[in-house]
Each structure stands twice: as C-alpha cells, then as structure tokens.
From TrEMBL:
This is ABC transporter ATP-binding protein. SUPFAM superfamilies: P-loop containing nucleoside triphosphate hydrolases. It comes from Vreelandella sedimenti. Pfam families: ABC_tran. Keywords: ATP-binding, Nucleotide-binding, Transport.
Length: 260
C-alpha cells in the first residue's frame, strides 16, 4: 500500500460551547483508498468531511493531506452531495465544466484550453452514461442523471481526493445500485482517494476498502473494518451470503452504538 495521504492526529472539533462534535479522531487514509464513514445521525460524519477539506479547522489536533497541514479549502478535492446542486441555467456540459472555470490552475487557462476541457467533460459524461445529454438543462434530467452529472463535476479537475456526502441518498434503490457501479468503475480506472459518508451499510460494504463506524455525539471512531471482498466487485456479490453476513455484522455494531 502507498503512504498515508490523509491523516488525523488526535483531532477534536467543538463548534461552540456545547462541547465536541467529534473527538479524538486518529486515522490515516492511503492514497487511492476508498473509505466509508457510517454512524448515527449527528455523529459528525459531515464534520469529518469539513475537516478533511479545510472548511473547518480542528479545535485540537492536526489534519494533514499529502503531508501538509490543512489550513484552508483544499484545491485537490472534489465534492458531491445528496442534492446534485446543478445550476439550472447551465447545460449539463457547462455544469460539469464549472470547476475548471473556478479552480486553480485551470481557471487561468479556461479560455485558451476550452475545447480541450470540453473534450474531458464529454468523455466523463460518456463514462457515466450521459452521452447525448450534454446540451440538456438539469431540469430535463432525472434525479439519477443529475447525480451522475454532479459526480462528473466533482471529478472534472482530476482531484486526488473525492468527498461524497450521501451522494445517492435521495435516489431510488435501482438507480442507487446503478450509480454504485458507475462510481466503482470510475474509481477502478482512476484510483483517486474517496471518502464516502453514507447511512447505507450495503453501499459502504460494496464500495469501500475500509469502513469506519462512528459513535454518537461526540463522534469517535469506534470500529475500523477492512472489507476483504475481492475486486472488482460485481453487484451480484451483494446478494450472496458472505456479503449479507458482513452487512449484518456492521448493522449489529451500529445497533450497539445507537443503544448505548
Ligand atoms: N456549523 C455548526 N455549528 C454548530 N453545531 C454544528 C454545526 N454543524 C454541525 N453541528 C453539530 O455537530 C454535530 C455533528 O454534525 P454533522 O453534520 O457532522 O453530523 P452527521 O453525522 O453528518 O449527521 P447526519 O448523519 O444527520 O447528516 C451535530 O450535533 C450538529 O448539530
């Protein structure tokens, strides 16, 4: 395995006087690793994301990405959320291009390299099954298609770290499983580092190398579970006994957290 890419050393964060939202987090994520965070509502999963990407600073402890302390918003990360948040006045293609207009070093090259960037966006849209929808507006797309576009937007600037906060939470079960496979294929091809926050234990077990289970507030990591299922993983795996047993075990651990 490669060297640690994201490290948390004794990290705690208190937003206000009500006490720590997350507490004593120690972990390291390797470059190219796919990790998932699961835990009860309010345990600090989104807070963990904000610390990783520099949207919040820890109250105590240190967060490092690629060997450097995180001191402000991280340029090498891409993000997608439960709501696709596409801009309604932009076409799908222009939504995907947006980070290249904003993020350094691309923004200074945007006009000159536009054609090349459009090529990147078209290629990515094709990979996620959106070829032919480039000129459509978000309101002309289904929820699943919007989320596909949102993932393309998160990846267009070739981030080394992809942060996904419940990205498939609002989708129906079939679309969600389709998008797991889309994400799996993108990750297999490019091997960026992924931090996925989810409430869905099947999603975590299917996609991740490592699942972290967090306690109730103040959120602490109470379990680190390596997922040993061979890759590449087929969706059929999720209907087979070893996978079902694994999800049951994770569910039991979450159950313990909730009842404590
Ligand atoms: N900006 C903020 N100011 C004050 N408290 C906050 C802020 N953001 C989050 N919190 C609190 O910190 C705790 C952790 O919140 P966070 O959103 O990280 O949890 P979560 O695990 O992502 O929740 P959910 O699963 O419901 O999305 C909660 O108690 C929340 O109320």
């Amino acid at each position: 395995m490669s060297a640690a890419f994201v490290t948390f050393d004794d990290v705690s964060l208190a937003y206000d006087a009500s006490g720590n939202a997350i507490e004593d987090i120690n972990l390291s994520i390797h470059e190219g690793e796919f990790v998932a965070f699961v835990g009860p509502s309010g345990c600090g999963k989104s807070t963990f994301m904000k610390l990783c990407t520099g949207l919040h600073a820890p109250t105590t402890g240190a967060v490092r990405v690629d060997g450097e302390p995180v001191t402000g918003p991280l340029k090498i990360s891409g993000m997608a959320f439960q709501n696709a948040n596409l801009l309604p006045w932009r076409t799908t293609l222009d939504n995907v291009l947006l980070p290249l207009e904003i993020v350094k070093p691309y923004r200074h090259q945007f006009r000159k390299r536009r054609e090349e960037f459009v090529g990147w966006a078209r290629k990515l849209l094709k990979t996620v099954g959106l070829e032919g929808y480039e000129e459509q507006y978000p309101w002309q797309l289904s929820g699943g298609m919007q989320q596909r576009a949102s993932i393309c937007r998160a990846l267009i600037h070739q981030p080394r770290l992809l942060m996904l906060d419940e990205p498939f939470g609002a989708l129906d079960a079939f679309t969600r499983e389709e998008l797991w496979c889309v994400l799996r294929d993108l990750w297999e091809a490019q091997r960026f580092t992924v931090v996925l926050v989810t409430h869905d234990l099947r999603e975590a077990a299917f996609l991740a190398d490592t699942v972290y289970i967090m306690s109730r507030r103040p959120g602490r990591v109470i379990e680190r579970r390596q997922i040993e299922l061979p890759r590449p993983r087929a969706l059929e795996t999720t209907y087979q006994k070893p996978f079902i047993d694994l999800v049951q075990e994770l569910r039991a651990q979450i159950g313990e957290v909730r009842s404590n």
